[in-house]
Amino acid sequence: MAASYVDSTTFYNHSRFLLLLYLFKETEQHFFSEKKLEDRVTMADNPSKSISQNTNTHRVILFPLPFQGHMNPMIQLANILHSRGFTISILYHQYNSPDPSKYPHFSFHLIPGGLSEDQLDKDEPLSAILLINTDCIKPTRDCLGKLLSTHNDTACIIMDANLFSSQAVVEGLGIPRLVLRTSSVCSFLAFATLPVLRENGFYSDDLDSRGEDPVLELPPLRVKDVQAIHVRSLDFTLKIISNIVEGTKTASGLIFNTIQDLEEPYLANFHEPFRVPTFLIGPFHKFFSAASSSLLTQDRSSVSWLDIQKPGSVLYVSFGSAATIDGESLREMTRGLASSMQPFLWVVRPGLVQGSEWLESLPNEFMEVVSQRGYIVKWAPQQEVLSHPAVGGFWTHSGWNSILESICEGVPMICSSFFGDQKVNSRYVTDAWKLGIKLEHVFKREEIESAIRKIMLDKEGQEIRERALCWKEKIDVSLKTDGSSSQSLNALSDLISSFKSSGA
Ligand code: UDX
Prior knowledge:
The chain has 504 residues and is an alpha/beta fold. The protein has two domains: 58-202 and 234-287 and 479-501, Glycogen Phosphorylase B (Rossmann fold, 3-Layer(aba) Sandwich); 295-477, Rossmann fold. Helices cover 45% and strands 12% of the residues. The protein has helices spanning 10-24, 34-43, 47-51, 68-83, 127-133, 137-150, 165-172, 185-199, 223-227, 234-249, 260-271, 301-307, 327-340, 364-373, 382-386, 400-408, 422-432, 445-456, 459-478, 484-501, and strands at 59-63, 87-92, 106-110, 154-160, 177-181, 253-256, 278-280, 314-318, 344-347, 374-377, 391-396, 413-415, 436-438. The strands form two sheets. It has a seven-stranded parallel sheet with strand order 3-2-1-4-5-6-7, with helices on both faces. Strands 10-9-8-11-12-13 form a six-stranded parallel sheet, sandwiched between helices. The longest helix is centred in the last third of the chain and has 20 residues, at 459-478. The structure holds uridine-5'-diphosphate-xylopyranose. Residues 67-70, 72, 182-183, 290, 294, 298, 318, 320-323, 347, 379-380, 382-383, 399-402, 405, 420-422 line the site of uridine-5'-diphosphate-xylopyranose (UDX). Uridine-5'-diphosphate-xylopyranose binds next to helix 4, helix 15 and helix 16.
């Protein structure tokens, strides 16, 4: 099979029909005017406010993958649907569990015998996904079955795309299943195209020297970007990805935390293999902040520190919830940050540095630099940090949530990458959207210093900043009443309501 796809509109017919339906419906729907948007952000802290707006009694069960980058968007989606009147139930594992006390407006259902901390292999990042999709199937089936038998108002279940084994469970229970894919459309397309790329020789040994070659099927990706997707063995990665992709194709709907404008050039290719109704309703955090679903405590002193810095002067550095670096990379980072002479706010997550608890491997002389113009925390309120006027750049690991949060605030990025979708994400940021520059991981002090100065001080950084601000405006437009994300959300709400009315 060649990886050249034809444009297809079949995919959208369903959504368009729902959209038309929507336009004829009463006007008291929950429009996302800027005022309403403000209300919604406030609702995150005051759920009772949204309860009073509820008009819809259908229940939606949401089932997140227990990792920060997946938990945040799922809980945000739950809040968004709740604000649309749906009753929300969250199914969860003991491992990385959400805190039910923060969401009195949801009901929570622990899977007895589900994934717990002591089952995990800390050195194997995929072990949790594997266990959830093998050992945890029976407990999931039992728990879900019980939940459905006691809640006959359930319209559908929305599950993380990585919970592929539970798809059969849900289908066996005769309830519509929607999938939340927490990445971008374009990176998911890259994942879905891996088998084709393998057939086309993209993983043969002699490709090492061709890392910079373009992948003609997926511009602007290079060979090394798609090669970086696989962890462990290629066969293993392809098996997992094929399960995810096939499970997504048979879902009743597919939800992305992204916006139409960003993905437009890739949608036609995407719609050909994925002929299910698709809803691009991001950025979720513009409806509801992710602060409440943070698995680590967010250190708010970082915001107080930013308050006393000059506008646009601070580089924010964070590599998300799962990436790790070795001691040598850490040393190069400290040297690069020191010689750049720029103020910085650095999230050194416990466990970020392999073999270290926290800061003990930082050189003493660097702590002096920190005391002069840096600030280090274990975990920050990232969305608030990125929207702070003092922040002028973001050195990121290129996780999708981080990228989206940065684009929303018009902050230019330095993109490193570690595993999974991150290298692909960073390619789109730098080469397609031109919102950042690349900094390859293996870190070198000179390259770090040069990248920081480029993004914070040079003309190139200024140009990126101007482009980033244009994207920020486009995102704001997509959230207005007639914007693409709002309309897509309307269509999603209608689809979910239709399940129950049609007795699906
Ligand atoms: C993982 C993968 O790494 C990522 O590539 C994939 O797209 C999603 O799953 P993670 O590494 O955690 O996610 O990165 P990211 O997607 O950026 O999500 C991190 C989340 O944690 C963001 O919502 C961010 O706001 C939040 N965060 C991060 C904090 O709240 N505080 C911090 O200090 C750092």
